[in-house]
Amino acid sequence: MANALGLSIGATQLVATPDDPQSQPVVRSSILTLHEDGPPEVGVPSQPGLTLTGFVGRVGDPVGIVAADGSVHRAEWALTEAMRVLIADAVSSANFTAPPVLSASIPAHWSPQTVNTLRDAIDRVPAFAPGGRQLKLIPDARAALEALAAGPGTPDRGVVVVCDLGGSGSSITLADAARGFQQIGQTIRFADFSGQQIDQMLLTQVLTDLNQDPEGTTSVGALTRLRDQCRLAKERLSGDTATSVPVQLPGITTDVRLTRAELEGHLRGPLSNLINAIQDTVERNGIHPANITAVASVGGGQAFP
Question: Residue 132: which residues within 8 A CB-CB, separation 6 or more?
């Protein structure tokens, strides 16, 4: 029976995972939709409403998120509301016999002020303390290290490099394996290697192949749908050597072929820059490369070919 529920907070995805192996994780896009005549939704909305996005990366920003109707919403409120709905969805589908113990992994590069802002917002919502137990916030690098430590083949000495390859950027964390994976220095944020960046590169390639100007296409909705198709194609290329992207633009309905070699070409430059950033991080912390005993990749980008 499940008695704990863990959340993963990402810029592009929110995930709720019960500790019951018989239950499936609940995965949603980081989108909150408010409805006048119904409860809010998390993920791609089933019907039109007031949609809020980008709130994960703006927690603590004094400037609120401006919705389509002109209303302004604090990012931390939007995130806690999305978390509340996600928890409710997960609890309804899992086999909980009592209120679950809640925890959430948050971006490791967040400042203490950002973490405290989210903590304050969470503490104002009773749903985050089922049974009187407060939801625990854990840096995602720490959560990843704990999971690695529990698995086979993890080194018990030297320095482990954790690369979180996320939707909006990558994070680099160093940990001392001999000291219980204690973190070394600060987590470094590297914005120039991200899932969204690769999606945009593929979108540009598809439009170029169709002789369409990426800056001149006026149908925002059609471009958004095509970018989503490029993201799905990127994910398929993790296992396939080639795939097709269905294209529906004003006056154009066709398929565009993409190959893994083309995806690797897009990845080569950003990945090289990420490797340089890792080397810089290691050097700044006074660590000799010979002392690196493992490099672990987590996040959605770990499945890149």
Answer: none
Best CA proximity match to 203, nearest among 219, 176, 173, 224: 224
Inter-residue contact 185 to 285 (CB < 8 Å): yes
Q: What pLDDT digit, counting tens, does each position of 77-103 carry?
A: 999 999 999 999 998 888 777 888 999
Q: What are phi and psi of 158, to 5 degrees?
A: 75, -170
In 3D space, the residue among 10, 6, 27 whose CA is nearest the CA of residue 301 turns out to be 10
Q: What residues contact 210, with CB distance under 8 A and at least 6 apart?
A: 247, 249, 252, 254, 256
Per CATH, the homologous superfamily of domain 195-263 is ATPase, substrate binding domain, subdomain 4 (3.90.640.10)
| pTM, two decimal places | 0.81
Q: Which two tokens stand for residue 23?
A: 């239950």
**Residue ranges, the chain, pLDDT below 70:** 1-2, 214-220, 301-305
CA 117 to chain centre: 20
Q: Which of 44, 42, 55 is nearest to 88 (CA)?
A: 42
CATH architecture of 2-138: 2-Layer Sandwich (3.30)
Residue identified by tokens 């019960």 is: 18
